TrEMBL record:
Residues 245-367 form the GGDEF domain. NCBIfam families: GGDEF. It comes from Petrotoga olearia DSM 13574. SUPFAM superfamilies: GAF domain-like (SSF55781), Nucleotide cyclase (SSF55073). The keyword Oxidoreductase does not apply. Keywords: Membrane, Transmembrane, Transmembrane helix. This is GGDEF domain-containing protein.
Amino acid sequence: MVYIIIHLVLLLILVYVFYKGIKTAIYVRRIANEKDKPPAFAPPSPKKVIRHRFKGSLFETAITCLENEVEKDYALKSIIEKLPLFLKADSWSFLITPPEGEWRFLFWSKNLDFLPLEEVAEEIQISGEHIKRVFNTKKILFIKDTKKSNLWNQKHSLSKSWLGIPIMVKNEIIGVLNVDWFKEVKISKFEKELINYFLEDIDRILKTFFSLNEMFLGSDLDILTQVYNRKAYEEYVSQHKSDSSKKVVIFLDFDNFKQINDDFGHIVGDQVLKLLTKRIQNSIKSDDLIFRYGGDEFVIILNETSETKNIDKIIQRIKLAVKTPITIKDTLIISSISLGYCLVPEEASNIEKAVEIADKRMYLEKK
């Protein structure tokens, strides 16, 4: 009698599963495109199931960030860290690698807080062949045993196995995600294929997220301050060579900013620069432009402002915004700027010449 009951239960379970399978297949066929409708009873591909789940997780994160209006860098971190979490890494870090300029860590897991990350980034930029390989090939690189690899040359490292993942936006590498394990691990061919699929999805999600938020993370924005970068400045100059409309070009430089980095470290220095840049942005109109010219130098272009009184007011507003003290980790930091300006077309025929004149005037004020 017991066996009959067991067989009946099993039969009912099989009927239920079979019924649910048919129902699911019908709904799947409704969603799919006409070209690629799957066979009604074909089991789903494991790669597709995992990829769809991962993509769904990325979209959920992006939507949450949009709904809560979080900072761009936090949104980027929330999306990128999905990969090391999926890979069950012991630690991870994201190193931004601009072709010109200093490399630096933007995010990292908490268990790396004790490391001198400014020194590590500087060391990697000079002799980090493992990162350079990822940067140059734009492909993932796995090192099973770092001690046996001729590419590995890191002093401050607990990694036994390491995976370098290029993070791409619009086919340009913006940084390398370091995934570390403190014991030797293996990454199968299946996992490598999944990682490459995930990278395609991350690229699409990042483009979608930042375009929806009107803050696209592309080659025209500086990764730290989120204002336009030097490349965007050069493009703007080339596009406005024959532009005769009235503009004010301001060249500004932070005073003794190197001292802030030396005294408090580059991480605090980055936070200060990011905050001060945001204050400067809030001191000008939304249709005015600000470019990070290099390091702690910035170019501001004010549209249709020529009266000296108005210019002076804007300059004083910018200086006051920068001069207001900043508190970071119970540390009070006071900064200041030197700047010079030039009128277009009254004093210079184009933006490039105006920047040269404004730069010289800034230097005289700094002296």
